[in-house]
Amino acid sequence: MQVSIALNGATSEHEVEPRLLLVHYLRDVAGLTGTNVGCDTSSCGACTVLLDGMSVKSCTVLAVQADGRAVTTIEGLATNGELHPMQAAFREHHGLQCGFCTPGMVLAAVSLAAEGGAGDEAAVREGLEGNLCRCTGYQNIVAAVLDGANGNGVRS
Amino acid sequence: MITAPFDYVRADSVDHAVQLLGTHGEDAKLLAGGHSLLPLMKLRLATPSVLIDVGRLAELSYVRDGGDHVAIGALTSHHDVATSDMVATDVPLLRRVAGQIGDPQVRHLGTIGGSVVHGDPASDMPAAMLALRATFVTVGPGGQREHSVDGFFTGFLETAIGADEVLTEIRVPKVPMAGWSFQKFQRRAQDWAVVGVACVRNDTVGIGLVNMGSTSLRATAVEDALGSGASIADAAALADEGTEPVDDLNASPEYRRHLAHVLVRRALEEASR
Ligand SMILES: Cc1cc2nc3c(=O)[nH]c(=O)nc-3n(C[C@H](O)[C@H](O)[C@H](O)COP(=O)(O)OP(=O)(O)OC[C@H]3O[C@@H](n4cnc5c(N)ncnc54)[C@H](O)[C@@H]3O)c2cc1C
Ligand code: FES
Ligand code: FES
Questions:
Q1: CA dihedral defined by B5, B7, B10, B11, rounded to 10 degrees?
Q2: Interface ipTM
Q3: pTM above 0.90, yes or no
């Protein structure tokens, strides 16, 4: 089936098998390998992208479900070489070690902030319950998200 | 993990979905949020030959005032249920339950209707439906039917909905003044319940149990005992009556029975404040 996805602001059109997962579309068809596969069972959040602005786990979405919709991956957050405030906050606070969870973590955080769910530490910790990090102990991630969410994560 | 191959069709309306179910027969499955169905298909525990995508039917995504009840479209996401002002005011238990399902990503795509029709005894939503005495509206080739929640969950991943029917609406009686409680005992933040209890209490009481058998169950013995004036402690001691909890990696049946007693007591105490 032919899909047309508004991928990071540009139209991405391809013929795909209905069973192709969105994460494989992004990595193997569109060549955007920033979206990682961790668990492949919708538990870890490494594959998180934005579908029409909302965080989803792309290992549990079919590419055909994203047809006609907007998908944002980590590659699509920066504009004109300038990091998105959430990305900048992760760098500033060193909210990563190996970086494997980071693309998913940043996109989950952008969605959380846009929904007004990143107001305090408890809300951020709960709002990131779908994203696992094996390295950092979360402390710096939470600090980054609280900072990056100032102004609701919207680029100032 | 990749699912087995299947054909994909998109329904433009409820009637179209019913028609497509008729055309493609028993091997076809409706796809809503896909958050129960796709994991099963990836493990090849489910291998439908056709997926009929109803996920885009905006006409089935709503929360409306139905007078004595809140009417919720089957395709309404857990996120939209959890953030609805009407649900918060008129059925606060439902808001809590929807808000504790999985994680934000799961709640953005998973739907209330998918949770109900999937009929998973480990799922929170069916237990809340039992506690709240919800009614389900389905549409099939023979027209519209209403189902009481009692008798709807017929077996493990089985419900009373016909293979040619679409669930369209969930009607939840308004209980703005009732006491309520949702006790979800889990090992980690995002986990499914080892055992869960949904409870509503006003002049009557409704209690639904998560993960205490092959279907979601009503704690009938507890409800009856309270109805005849038993104390909370005495009634809660009957919480595992008629249950058949499973043995799995998380807990033994004995431990689940123990949890049911404790969680039903806590739920009743909280709902009776
Ligand atoms: C990581 C993860 C964690 C989760 N945690 C929890 C949790 O803690 N508690 C919990 O309760 N649930 C949990 N879930 C399940 C989640 O709530 C599912 O979204 C929900 O059970 C199914 O909704 P869906 O829209 O995704 O349905 P789908 O997967 O699309 O469909 C499920 C079944 O229902 C049928 N169906 C769907 N809609 C209709 C309709 N309108 N009419 C007729 N048939 C229909 C489908 O054909 C299919 O058989 C979790 C899921 C995941 C992936
Ligand atoms: S890879 Fe999708 S949630 Fe882990
Ligand atoms: S930084 Fe390594 S998993 Fe999070």
A1: -120
A2: 0.95
A3: yes
